[in-house]
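Mods, move this if it's the wrong board.
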Amino acid sequence: MRLMLCCLALLALAVPAFAEDAKPDAEGFISLFDGKTLNGWTVTTCKADVENGCIVILEGKGFVRSDKIYGDFVLELDWKNRKEKDYDSGVYFRSALPRKNNAWPDRYQINLKQGEEGSLVGNKNAKVTGMAKGGEWNHMRLTVKGDTAALEMNGKQAWTVENIQPEQGYIGLQVETPNGGQFEFKNIRIKPLTPPVTPGAGK
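Not the wrong board. Structure tokens:
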């Protein structure tokens, strides 16, 4: 029995915990990515993997999303494009699942397309240029409260917009490698300001 308990304890240490089950840090942030696995994420119609502590989007057109749904939160992450030019990806927030026959959700996407990095797709009041450095690590901080969202890119205020609906949705990464190339994401953490929801829980 003692040997069995020791083996179970070693097995528990060997298996990475879900990032979302981690305890909040001193600032109230929880890791959304454990740096080792895609636990806590769902990958659809594309290929993604973990390399050197980063989520890397590798092939296809699709969506890499959080398993949980978030309402109000502060999200931080670092991103870098691998393609030298004409790169394109995006970070989604409060998104629904993609509609049938679509690779990506309809909204809300923070663009990572070359020349438009940080712009909120479809919102003329949230267009920015020159806030990111291609081929280098860039830091993003997104704050969403109620119907308001605000973005900082590399420590500078990019935009604040209102009328963000619905009240909750997924965090996600856009994958469109045939045209936009591969991207890397790391240090993905979130500070929930309202409790996250697990889809289907309680049913």
